[in-house]
Amino acid sequence: xxxxxxxxxxxxxxxxxxxxxxxxxxxxxxxxxxxxxxxxxxxxxxxxxxxxxxxxxxxxxxxxxxxxxxxxxxxxxxxxxxxxxxxxxxxxxxxxxxxxxxxxxxxxxxxxxxxxxxxxxxxxxxxxxxxxxxxxxxxxxxxxxxxxxxxxxxxxxxxxxxxxxxx
Length: 167
Known about the structure:
This protein is an alpha+beta fold. The chain is built from four helices and seven strands, in the order E-H-H-E-E-E-H-E-H-E-E. The radius of gyration is 15 Å and the shape is globular. It starts with 5 loop residues before the first strand and ends with a strand.
């Protein structure tokens, strides 16, 4: 069976339950998000509204009418002098990983960031997340920081790496 044709589009509020499902699976089963408690729909709605009010994109990958992943970027730091730098994230549904969806989402986020006049994109990546590390290196990101044992999840200490792409 061939994977569905994936298209990207701007997310809508109607997509939030599916985005929540993807995000909560990531929280509960991976170290991609340094959080342990699932989010509520109200939390996702607040996140979505904050992104939209700030003019930041939220995009979804969709195949055969099913959301297979999503990505966004937002403030790296809220102080005014960081206004040309954003931190991004990309998440893919557990049943659709390994199909190149994260590449499509990241490529689009980079293009949107350039068009918005941003200067730098930042990625915070768990040091054990080989897939994300390879993805970001492929797109020209470079490692700029290694924070040792700053997270604790699943009974172990986690190292956080920061990667940067100058646009």
